[in-house]
Batch of 2 targets.
Target 1
Amino acid sequence: ASFRHYQWRFSGSTLHHRVSHWIAKKDLVLFDLGYVSFETLRAIIEAGACFVCRFLPRTLVYDNQCGKETELDLLQLLKKRNRNCSLFEQMVLIGSQRIPCRLVCARLPQQEYNKRLRKLRLDATRKGRFLSKRARLLARWNIFITNVDHSVLDTFQVINTYPLRWSIELL
């Protein structure tokens, strides 16, 4: 496999215009959804490339089971998973553009969850905000979206691929 590193210093609203110049078919793009628009995801798909990124909690998620599109309550979906279920994956549509992707969720171990919760509470306090129950419950999970087929990257591989983003950024 070859490796190319790009530092995108454009806002999410303009990045999708530039993606076609940088991305080749079968590339895998790792990024944080907070910095990229749904137009960029669509451009990556249209270029024949793939993405793995962190899920932005305020993103709308839709189910398209049996051809009937319905909005999913992600929080309820995750609440249904008992403590013994540490991984969860489902095909969904995301955002107003209804981009098809896999939603991959991994429950954090209690110690990591506590650490994340402390950080979120500290950040909220610094900003003079209240940490919502929804934010606390979603913090229990690492949630990713990807358009990579399961036969190429299984659930564990998706979860283990995203952290590479941080190693790459240090280059």
Note: Helices lie at 12-22, 38-46, 74-79, 110-126, 133-138, 155-161, 164-169.
Target 2
Amino acid sequence: KLHRRSKNPLASSHGECQNLNVNRVQIFVCQFLILFQREQFKMAKILLVEDESIVAADIRETLENKGHTVLNIVDSGVKALKSIEQHPPDLVLMGIHLKGEMDGIVVAKSIIERFDLPVVYLTAHPDEDTLDRMKMTHAFGYVLKPFEEQKLLMTLTLSLYHYEQEQRLKK
């Protein structure tokens, strides 16, 4: 259910973005964000796993201002797994470097295998080895830090949409 009023959700927002003297990709981003702001996408319950408290607070504010619920902010893999057991989220936003013995990639792999939840990585330094490890977990994407609000929101929206489609196919 991407749109309540028309069969093509991007068509209804096209006129609002067309007058902005931008390229096609920017028009698509604009359309996507307008739909998002109209609350025509599912608002998600998100677990934020991030060891940098300032970054976590900024992300929380961004997500909550757009209608999402941040169920919890945790800074370690053990706390993330415990939080999911107590309050299952719709999506996990996962930092790579965490407190404790497990890094975010190990934790994400466990979350995906045990709980079948979508994971989106947060990373400041996506070196080749890290990217290779991230790919092996089949996460739904990643956001570079420092994050840009539009890219964060679009990545989460697309991840939730793809996860829903994947779940429908499994049934």
Note: Residues 65 and 109 are 29 Å apart (CA to CA).
